[in-house]
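Re: Re: token formats

Sure, here are both.
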Amino acid sequence: MHFGRIEFCDCLRTPITMMFSKILIANRGEIAVRIIRACKEMGIASVAVFSEADRDALHVAMADESFCIGPATSIDSYLNMSAIITAAVTSGAQAIHPGYGFLSENAKFAQICEKCNITFIGPSAKILDTMGDKDSARRTMKGAKVPVIPGTDILSSVKEAKKEATVMGYPVLLKARSGGGGKGIRLVEKESEIEHAYKMASSEAKSNFGDGALYMEKFLYPVKHIETQILADKFGTALCLGERDCSVQRRNQKLIEESPSPVVTDEMRKKLIAASVKAAKACGYTNAGTIEFLLTDDGKFYFMEMNTRLQVEHGVTEMVTGIDIVKWQIRIAAGQRLTYTQNDVKLVGCAIECRINAENPKENFRPCAGRVNMLHFPAGPWVRTDSALYQDYIIPPFYDSMVAKILVHAKTREESIRKMRAALCELILEGIDHNSEFLGEILSLREFEKGTYHVDLLNKK
């Protein structure tokens, strides 16, 4: 591998001599813009890839070079491995950052990168394969003595599912072995529902991930969705950067995230950190990753799954820790050591993130594409917006509906909530439908203000 420049680490007084000179970003939208910014700050040249629908996208204009990799549909462009690898080789990029979604957790793509002598900025293909398979991940965590939600191995049939559910006791969750994003999951409350739910979950998983295999978990209720941020280098050092509360969800899709969680005590946080570091080391993890837990009201937490990539909500952790996770992804991939210890990681204040989606909550959250006629993002001290929108940009209908993330940071949670309400009120986004008003309503709910909300919060709204 060729490393073309010297980088000065923001944590060290001495220069680090191993760093990429050019990185290709195999993604689009706000996360591509986020990674390009990190590259610019590190003095690294960036290469964008884009579909025909994204020819006028912001990430294309920001990058030093850009390559069209196919038609509008994801399968023909952002999931087109050969086109992306060709762009990397042609441009001379030494590494590929996959962002999140698309190919970010694809073990085959990581293997192809390795064969082409291109660094995949993420964990190894072996780890992606092990932890991307939720059944394998559960067994790995059990072996590491990390608490796991009671559940089964892979189910072979509806008949076996009925048998296991009877033993486990209803309600249960049928869950896809592969993929994520809430796909391939069905809640089953009684035996008469299980055959239909099994077929629907398996079909959805097969359609989205090419794998219809399912397993079953006991449905825990009420629970919070708590996740921990991991950074691990290639020298055996693994750090946990605290937790995020991601319990505000609609149909298993996160809408609001915050750090730290309002219900996690210092003692509980120590246990979460210890379990997370143990989990990372158990699978030999490297780079950035997220471990997801369910937290019950009695203070017990259970491993749910591991996301072997950068999370959408990584910014809230950056705001409370002061650690740039994207830059550290790049440094770790280049072979550098973490310069922090666990004692160096401090959570200061409170950060909240709201996901701005181009959708209409009043019309069953119908997605909305179209031209942005007027745009103004909120600003001020400790207010951050991650987005690829600009005035007169035409949002294409082919991709995820999230168009921006607004993040705020303050000394206290109460102040952060007020700051986020003010930020949402300041947002001007005309020409398309979006969910900012809906998010403001959530922030004003008594349960949210108290911090006692669970993952079913929006079911009650």
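Second one below.
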Amino acid sequence: MTYLHTLILGMVEGVSEFLPISSTGHLILASYLLHLKQTDFQKSFEIAIQLGAILSVVVLYWRALLVNFEILKRVITAFIPTAILGFIFYKIIKRVLLGSNTVVLYSLLIGGIFLVLFELWHREKESATGELSAISYSRSFMIGLCQAVAMIPGVSRSAATIIGGLILGIKRKTIVEFSFLLSVPTMVAATGLDLMKSGGHFSLEEFHLLLMGFISSFIVALLSIKWLIHFIKNHTFISFGIYRILISLLFWFAIL
């Protein structure tokens, strides 16, 4: 892996982390196009650079995370099921699921079809919850369970949490922002767990590569978040569902 590779992958991460298209899936497919082997470092890199994107959330939403304790309690509640399931299935995720192009393509395709069908069916009610602090703890926990499904590469953490929130009767802008906030403890925990298990084996140059990916993902994610908030004011996620279907079919014929 070169510094140019890390720059490209960091940009891919920054663009895709908060869109319902699966950042992990796109990193795996981008690595395939760049002819990068799925080594242990490569898998750890794909997890760790997500921290750059997560830092952009902290920069933009630090008040909600650090000042509003009611919102923070709900984010922590949603994080609990993901933390437990992620710890239990860490080895399976790292050794079996990550790096599997087949798993990614199936997830992108099925998720894209589901996303399109869901948006055609879903109608937001006027009574839908519009404030982050008004989301109940039970709903927060259920959103966390939905997020846990995204441990499967290609599913998309943001898509799982957003769709889960919409089903539970939360307004679109509100659940999108909740998904942003929930990404902070989720990805910090995922990266921390991976670095504890693998970080001691990284060379100094590999840490420099991680830093490059971190910085590029942070900058691009800032722009991606602002764009998505503007986009959802007048659009559904159907276009993302169609994109998922098309990209999965394209890679399907190219890889399999």
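Residues 8 and 76 are 32 Å apart (CA to CA). Residues 3-255 form one domain.
- S.
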